[in-house]
Amino acid sequence: LHLEARLRAALDAGGLHLHYQPQVDTTTGALLGFEALVRWTDTQLGLVSPARFIPLAEEAGLIGDLGEWVLNEACRQAAEWGLRVPVAVNVSALEVAQEDFTQRVHATLRRHGLDGGQLKLEVTERLSVQDLQRAARQLAQLHGLGVQLSLDDFGTGQSSVSTLLQLPLNELKLDRSLITGVAESPIEQRVVSALISLGRSLNLTVIVEGVETPEQLRVLRDLGCGAVQGYLTGRPGPASMWTPHLNGPL
Ligand code: G
Ligand code: G
Ligand code: MN
Ligand code: NA
């Protein structure tokens, strides 16, 4: 079977699941949210990376159904946990540009009895200008419902400064490629420092992903970064891994 057909089958047969990775306050260590990350284990291929199957789902017209499954499952889990911080769901801008996206998100929140503020959408810009304008309209409506909006992968080709001007954002998420050498490299420090200032001057929370070492965390905190996500503060894992830790420090 082709990869695409296998993905379709997994979607229909409950073959996908979610992992969750904590987002953490750099000064207090408090839990600020969980990012939901989709996982697919195929019976023959083993674990297939979303970096591979998300683009495939987009091409094959499966991203609507896949995205809907992820959103519903993440909201279901947040409700089951009684999570007081938002659950963050990745959305491809292609999904957001669909006419009924706002309605579908609203219906999902209602289904699980969640407030808008309990959901964060991490948007990656892989869009034409026209799609971006459509997406911006939908996101403005969701923003009105209190849904948090984060611009994911900032600092890579996938997310640009011009997008900052077009979307009603709450958060800027700096890509991990920007901070791999931040503990040693003065130039990386200056670049990241400037991006943190940019976000803060726009009243955005700045979160850095891919933080793996205590040195990186210390430097980022000193540069004014409020939030981090990475292997240092918690690897992505199934919901059952986090359930015992929700009411204390991670
Ligand atoms: O979790 P991992 O590092 O394997 O994710 C790889 C890429 O897949 C990341 O860019 C991430 O944003 C994306 N991704 C993970 N889960 C989802 C999802 O549910 N929906 C979308 N659209 N992208 C996802
Ligand atoms: O692009 P996005 O932020 O959605 O992707 C998150 C991806 O980054 C996930 O696939 C997750 O598994 C991965 N990830 C999370 N923390 C770390 C980390 O500390 N180091 C590395 N290399 N990858 C990470
Ligand atoms: Mn993300
Ligand atoms: Na990213």
Give an account of the 3D structure.
- By secondary structure, the chain is of the alpha/beta class.
- It has a domain at 3-157 and 228-240: EAL domain (TIM Barrel, Alpha-Beta Barrel).
- The protein is 42% helix and 23% strand.
- It is built from ten helices and ten strands.
- The protein has helices spanning 3-12, 50-59, 63-81, 93-96, 101-112, 129-144, 161-166, 186-201, 214-222, 239-242, and strands at residues 16-25, 31-42, 46-48, 87-92, 119-124, 148-154, 171-174, 205-209, 227-229, 237-238.
- It has an eight-stranded mixed β-barrel, surrounded by five helices.
- Helix 3 packs parallel to helix 5 and helix 5 runs parallel beside helix 6 (129-144).
- The longest helix has 19 residues, at 63-81.
- The mean pLDDT is 93.
- Sodium ion (NA) is lined by residues 152-153, 175, 209.
- One guanosine-5'-monophosphate binds at residues 21, 37, 90, 122, 152-153, 176, 209-212, 230-231, 236.
- Residues 1-250 form the EAL domain.
- It comes from Deinococcus daejeonensis.
- This is Diguanylate cyclase/phosphodiesterase with PAS/PAC sensor(S).
Topology:
Elements: H1 3-12, E1 16-25, E2 31-42, E3 46-48, H2 50-59, H3 63-81, E4 87-92, H4 93-96, H5 101-112, E5 119-124, H6 129-144, E6 148-154, H7 161-166, E7 171-174, H8 186-201, E8 205-209, H9 214-222, E9 227-229, E10 237-238, H10 239-242
Parallel strand pairs: 2-4, 4-5, 5-6, 6-7, 7-8, 8-9
Antiparallel strand pairs: 1-2, 1-9, 1-10, 2-3
The protein binds guanosine-5'-monophosphate (2 copies), manganese (II) ion and sodium ion.
Residues 35, 90, 122, 152 line the site of manganese (II) ion (MN).
